[in-house]
Amino acid sequence: MIGAAVNLARGARVGFVLAREGALALVDASELPPLPRLGLRLVRMLERPGLGSGAARLSAGLTRLGPSYVKFGQFLATRPDIVGMAAARDLEMLQDRVPSFPQAVAVKVVEAAFGRPISTLFVAFGEPVAAASIAQVHKAVVQDADGTQRNLAVKIMRPGVRERFQRDVEVMRLLARIVHVLSPEAERLRPRDVVEILARSVTMEMDFRLEAAAASELAQNTADDEDFRVPLPEWELIARDVLTCEWIEGTRLHSAAALQAAGHDPHAIGRTVIQSFLRQAIRDGFFHADMHQGNLFVDAAGKLVAVDFGIMGRLGRKERRFLAEILLGFIMRDYTRVAQVHFEAGYVPAHHSVDDFAQAIRAIGEPIHQRRADEISMAKVLTLLFDITALFDMSTRTELVMLQKTMVVVEGVARSLDPKLDMWTSAEPVVRSWITRNLGPVGRLEGAAHAARTLADVVADVPELALRLRRLLVRADEAGTGDAHRLERIARTERRTERRTALWQTLALWAIAAGVLVAALR
């Protein structure tokens, strides 16, 4: 009871701060029932005079509320399907304006994580060079066994941040429930689901072992790319609260002039930004979902280097084919094919007409081909496409929304380096290469081989499934048709027996595998 009262008080403070900063101006009062509409009108009387736009007010309010709410705003910036594109763009500007914590505290976190004095881990350990709501980064030096010294970046979790976040999430859950009770219409925005998704996302982001795994996977996927690379993690110096990786010396992508001064070609780098993102998304199905200027460098060799892998996106094969074919369809003006891809992927219900959908897509595509290539926004095309699909009952796909939002950011970065960059010409080689490889003869043979393996697995299981069915039928016959409870007990016993059998089979397989491994090592 006391906890609920405390959360209610904290929730009241959140409401007051948002009202004071004018963030509630984003709420459309016309969509509210009479009583909540009156409440909104009264609460907005608390607004400070001389405030800016509604979205900018939301950013200001979240910043005042602290790091957890800043993280919440940054998360909402990746979900324009919830807050709208205008608010999402403004929320992108949210920065973690958090002072660094003391050097001595950072040292204690590192020593606690590894159980050793910091002097045995690093030759040198510098002051923080960057600080955010969850962590801060230090520059350190390590010495290898051959005496070589290397610079490393050490990311350290902010002490107490998990406890603070869990406390704030409880308040967010309370506020989401209140919104649901007062305005059931707002449930279309899924406030309770949004809070739970945020909680899971940030919980994962607060385990640096998972971020290191994401960096390692992206590095493996892009190992053969000549124009992109990822700083490799130092696995011996990684724990839940500490992430250590290669230190990157390079030029940030904030300014084309700075890149030119460092001897790089901003136009070529802009093209690399687009192509690297599309290779990750279409070829690998695993992409960096936070590719803003602050997370991108160009090293001395001219390679694009990405950092900070807390937010990543995944696309399944179906989504990758969907993306590749619709982009190529717009490039080739094949709107019927673009429409068919939507239906084949199951994104648009079958009761709609492919021809009608193709006509709607043509309304997006044809104006594109009346303009210069450097005036066409790939991200805007996808945004318009998703708007059209809403008219055809296409359900929201979280992974596609993440993709769309990342493409908006990536396109913005590329165009800041080269305002006349032809996005479609830059994208075409990546898209066509994937389609040729995966939908051509080689890809079809590989798909047939995969289908054959799946079918073989099913066929191999048929005898065992038949035996299970036979045993159940025999025991059911013995039990008699009227003894339903006894039949259920028999079925439970059968399931327990099968689970035990499966467990022992699994343990046996692991034992065999371990034996083979030991023999191989010998």
UniProtKB/TrEMBL annotation:
InterPro entries: ABC1_dom, Kinase-like_dom_sf, UbiB, UbiB_kinase. The chain crosses the membrane at residues 502-521. SUPFAM superfamilies: Protein kinase-like (PK-like). Keywords: Cell inner membrane, Cell membrane, Membrane, Transmembrane, Transmembrane helix, Ubiquinone biosynthesis. Residues 94-342 form the ABC1 atypical kinase-like domain. Pathway: Cofactor biosynthesis; ubiquinone biosynthesis [regulation]. Belongs to the protein kinase superfamily. ADCK protein kinase family. This is ABC1 atypical kinase-like domain-containing protein.
